[in-house]
Amino acid sequence: MRKLRPDSRHHPLNSAAPLEGFVAWPPEFAEAYRRKGYWKGKTFGESLDDWATRYGERIAVVSGDVRISYRELRERADNVAVSLAALGIAPRDRVVMQLHNVPEFFYVAFALFKIGALPVMALPAHRETEIRHLIEFSEAVAYCSPLAFRGFDYVGMVRSIAPTTPTLKHILVVGPDVPPGTVSIEAMARRAPANAADVLSRYRPKASDVALFLLSGGTTGLPKLIARTHDDYIYNFESAPAVCGVNADTVYLIALPISHNFPLVAPGSLGTFSAGGKVVLASSPSPEAAFPVVERERVTMTGQVPAVTIQWLDSPLRGKYDLSSLKVLQVGGSRLNAEVARRVKPLLGATVQQVFGMAEGFVCYTRLDDPEEVLFNTQGRPLSPDDEILVVGWDGKPVAPGERGELLTRGPYTIRGYYKAPEHNALAFTPDGFYRTGDVVCLTPSGNISVEGRVKDLINRGGEKIAAEELENLIVGHPSVQNVAVIAMPDPALGEKICACVIPRPGQSLDLEALRAFLDAAKIARFKLPERLELVETFPLTSVGKISKKSLREDIAAKLRAEGKIP
Ligand code: AMP
Ligand code: DBH
Fold this sequence. Notes:
Rossmann fold, 9-stranded mixed beta sheet, 5-stranded parallel beta sheet, disordered N terminus
C-alpha cells in the first residue's frame, strides 16, 4: 500500500505567489471582476462537488452504453485524485492530457483540478513533435492518453519521447489492461480509498490560481500555452448557458475534440454540467457516427465547425435518422457562409448559433432570438458586459464605425499574456493589456461582429489552425528547398487548405507526395500536411521587401478558379 500522505513541502498552494510565468490581471481589474460577481472565488473541484450535490443521480455523461451520474462522476474524479496524489503528483505539476472523447477525460481533468495539478490540453491529432514540445515546455511530470486511437499508438509515441524528457515520470492510460510501467485510469477510478476526504482536504487550490492550460492555434512556431484560472474559466462557462439556451433538459453532443475550448466552455461540457444537463460523447462528427447518437440520446444541441455543418446538411443519411430533438446548432471555429447558415433551420430543424471564440478567452455568440439577418450574416456579440473591444487600423487607432480593422479585446476571461512567453507577449498584447486577436472584423449597424479576415499568419483549415511559420521552419529543412512560403488557399468544404509555395534549390525538384512524406517523417499532426505544392522561381515582394503572402494567395486563388476547383 502506498503512502497517501502528500508531503506538505511540495504544496505551495497556500503561498500567495502566483505560478511563475503566468501573467495575472492587474489588481484593479481583478478587484472589479470580483466586485461585479464575475469571479466568484470558486474552484473546479468545488464546482464538481456542488453539481454532484445538486444533480446527484441525474446523468452527466453518456458514452456508448456507459451512463455516468453526477454522483459517480465526482466519485471517480475523487478516486483518481487520491491515486494521483499517491503517485506523487503535486499541486502545480503539469500533466499533458491527450485523450479523445471518452469519460476518462473528465475523471482525470477533475482529479487534477482537485489536487491543484494542471492539465495541458493537447489534441488527439498531435504527434511526437507537438507532444515533445508540450512536455518540455510545460515540464510535465505525467502524460495521459489512450493506448491507441484511430490506429495510432500513443503509448509507443510517448515511450520514444520519455528518455529525453527527464521531468516525465508517469504515463496514465485509458483502459483496464494497460502495458507494464503505465497506470490504468480505469483502475484508479474504481479504487475507492477510505481516506479520500482526508487526503483531498489537504489540497486547496485557490480560485485565482491557474487551473489548466489550453493551446493557442498560434501564429509563430509551436502552440503557445494559455493559462486559464479557476475564476476566469468558471465565469466563462457559467455565463454560456444563458446565451445558449442551456438548462437541465439540455443534451449536449461533443463530437469535436473534447479538450478544445469550444466544446469545453462555449457552453461545452462544463457549461452543460453547470446547468445539470447531459453530455453525450461521439467519436467523430461525421453523419455516420453522430446521427445515430443524436437519435438515440435525443441530443438537443451540439457545437461544430462549418465543414461539418455542410456535411450534415448534404448527407443522404439526414432523412434516415430522427434528428427532431435538435434545437440549437452552434457553428464556429471558422467563418460560416451565410447561405449554409440559412439552410440549417429548414433542413435540420435547429436554430443556428454562430460562435466566434478563441482559447485566449473572448467569445461572441449570436443570440437565439436574433433576427435572421443577424443569425446568418454575423458572428454575434460578446459574452460578457465587461468584454472590451476595439477595432483598430494599421496605425493602431480605432477605425470609423463600420470600417474593417483588427479586433483587440480584454475582459474578465481573456488572458493578459501567454504562459512563459514575454517576448511574444510584447507583440501579442497592447501595453494596456488588450489581446491582439489577429482577426479582421467590422461592427455591423446592428452592433454585431462580422469576421472579415485576419492579419495573423496562419491557415484556418476548417477550424484547425496551422501556423505558417511552424511549417515553413520544417520545409526549409528539406534538401531540395531553397525557400518556402506557406499560405492558405480557398476550399469550398474546409474554407481553407494549406498550400506550400517553394523555390527549389538549383537543379532540384520536389513533388507534393515527397514533401508530405518528408513532413510526416517529422512526426507532426497530419492536418498540417500541405495539400498543394507550387514550385516558383521567385516570390512576389512587398514594398519593404518581405514575401507578399497576399499576392501569393491571390495567385493561387486565380489558379484554382482557372482549374474550376472553386467558383
Ligand atoms: P484558437 O486561437 O485556436 O483558439 O482559434 C481562435 C481563432 O479561430 C479566432 O481568433 C479566429 O481566427 C478563428 N475563429 C473562431 N471562430 C470563428 C468564427 N465563427 N468565424 C471566423 N473565425 C473564427
Ligand atoms: O476556434 C476556436 O478556438 C473557438 C471557436 C468557437 C473557440 O475557442 C470557442 C468557440 O470558444
